[in-house]
Structures are given as C-alpha cells and as structure tokens.
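User: I've been trying to design a sequence by hand for this structure and keep getting stuck. Would you show me what you'd pick, starting by listing the structure so we're on the same page?

Assistant: Good idea, let's start from the same input. This is the structure you sent:
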C-alpha cells in the first residue's frame, strides 16, 4: 500500500489529531529523501516501536552552507515513495517549502557545545539549519519518538541536546550505521561518486577502524591519527577535513583514551564530501 503524500501542515495535523485520539504512538523518521538502506533501517525500527510512522522528506535549504551542494542534492520523490511502499508507513510528509519556512520566518534554533568543531567548524550554519528544521518537524508531527542514524553522529547529539534543553516531549532513538559489504557507510552522496571514486571510497572506513583498534590497544592517539590521515590521502582522497577522537556523548576532544570515545572523519573524494565515525573502546 502506498502511503499518502502530504504537502500541507494542516493535512498532517488532521491525521495526527485522529491518531492521537485513538491513543496511537507516533514515530517520525526525518529525511532529505534519496532514500537508501540506511534510511529504511530507521523506518523498520520506527515501525517496530510505534503504531504510526511518518517519514518526512524535505531538502532543508538552511542546512546547506554551499549553494552548489544544495542544487546537486538528489531529489527522487517517486522512487523514495516506491522504496517506502513495502514498509506500509502511515504518511509521507513532503512539505511545500512555505509550510516549513513561511514568509518572514525569523527564528533559529542554535545548539552550542556539541555543534562546535568537526562538521560545525567546516560547515558554518549547518547545525543551526538542522536544529531549526528538526525542531519544526518535531512540533509539526508531534511524534512520540524520532529515529536518527549514528552515521551523522554529531547531528544525533545536537538533536538529543535540543530535545533535552527545550523539553520537547519526544524520544530520540539512535540506530547503527548501515554499510555496504566493503564497509562504505551508506549515504545519499554515494550516488554522486564515479565508478573510480566508489572503488577508492571504502579506504575511509578501513583507515578509521584500524586507527580505532590501535587507539583501543593503547597506541598514541596523535601518531595513530597522523598515520590514518596519510593512509586516507594515499588511497586517493583529496582532502581530510578532520579526523578526530572525541568523547562519546559530549564530543569533548580526547588526547588519550580514558572512556568511551568516537573517532570521527570527514574527507573528500572527487569533490564529494563523505563522513563516517566508529566507536573506540579500550582493550
Ligand atoms: O540527516 C538528515 O537527512 C537531515 O540532516 C535531517 C535530520 C533530515 C534534517 O534536515
């Protein structure tokens, strides 16, 4: 069964009012479309956790700091709806832009701390755009729970923090990164890799996991990261934007491993910016 595609907030509200009246638990899976198995794993988790599932598809202009990146972002609504069909979600919310940003829109949700550094340092305004749209989608859907992938680990922490700080009554559920057989983390951006770049791309995950293992065994953090950076460049990546060890939860920089940590990377291959992260544990 194909789910109804809703483009107006009033139509979404009419549905959710009815569901709430029935006592249904509502889940939301926020996306920007170009759905892949990673998104579908979030949908599956949402289906298992709630009575009603809303998938939102909105390419949010406010989180793109590069106009070219926004223009090139894949828009594949028809195939997205076809991919969702087997999951029998209850609604696909594809808001018209003015339903999210009406004329004169003047509010920004800005999360300090966890949004600093990493992607926050390299994509000015990005997390303000994410925090603002996610807050709106939470309020528009009035969902009880929301599903996010760990692939965008910093985004996940930004969302958790805004929910806590603003007392938004929603449970944020983190789901593991889904990978190709060769380790490449699924991303809508992978669609833009040439065949040659696609062949080189898994080197990022390989370097990340071997650095995480080395740090876990007690090897020097700075030296290990320097080696991993060289390995990524030697594999054909043009630039390593950042490769950093941070504390899980707070994202505070970690110079030597003393608790649960995360190794996070952003690197570009043929002008395509890829990000990934893995947990780091001692022992
Ligand atoms: O991760 C994404 O696809 C986007 O950042 C999100 C959470 C849908 C907000 O636009």
């Amino acid at each position: 069964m194909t789910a109804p595609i809703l483009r107006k907030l009033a139509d979404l509200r009419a549905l959710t009012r009815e569901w709430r009246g029935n006592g249904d638990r509502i889940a939301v899976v926020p996306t920007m479309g170009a759905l892949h198995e990673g998104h579908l794993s979030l949908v599956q988790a949402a289906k298992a956790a709630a009575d009603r599932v809303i998938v939102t598809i909105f390419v949010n202009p406010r989180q793109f700091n590069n106009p070219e990146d926004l223009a090139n972002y894949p828009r594949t609504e028809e195939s997205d709806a076809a991919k969702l069909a087997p999951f029998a979600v209850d609604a696909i919310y594809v808001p018209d832009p003015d339903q999210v940003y009406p004329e004169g829109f003047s509010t920004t949700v800005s999360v300090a701390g966890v949004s600093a550094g990493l992607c926050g340092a390299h994509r000015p305004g990005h997390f303000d755009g994410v925090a603002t749209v996610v807050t709106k989608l939470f309020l528009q859907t009035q969902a009880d729970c929301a599903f996010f992938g760990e692939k965008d680990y910093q985004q996940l922490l930004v969302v958790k923090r805004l929910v806590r700080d603003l007392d938004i009554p929603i449970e944020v559920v983190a789901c593991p990164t889904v990978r190709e057989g060769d380790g490449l983390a699924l991303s809508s951006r992978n669609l833009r890799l040439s065949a040659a770049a696609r062949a080189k791309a898994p080197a990022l995950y390989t370097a990340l996991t071997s650095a995480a293992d080395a740090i876990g065994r007690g090897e020097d953090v700075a030296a290990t990261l320097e080696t991993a950076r060289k390995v990524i460049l030697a594999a054909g990546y043009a630039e390593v934007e950042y490769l950093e060890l941070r504390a899980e939860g707070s994202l505070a920089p970690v110079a030597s491993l003393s608790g649960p940590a995360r190794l996070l990377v952003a690197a570009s291959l043929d002008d395509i910016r890829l990000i990934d992260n893995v947990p780091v544990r001692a022992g």
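That's my pick for every position. To get oriented when you compare it with your attempt: The radius of gyration is 19 Å. The domain at 5-175 is CATH 3.40.50.620 (Rossmann fold).
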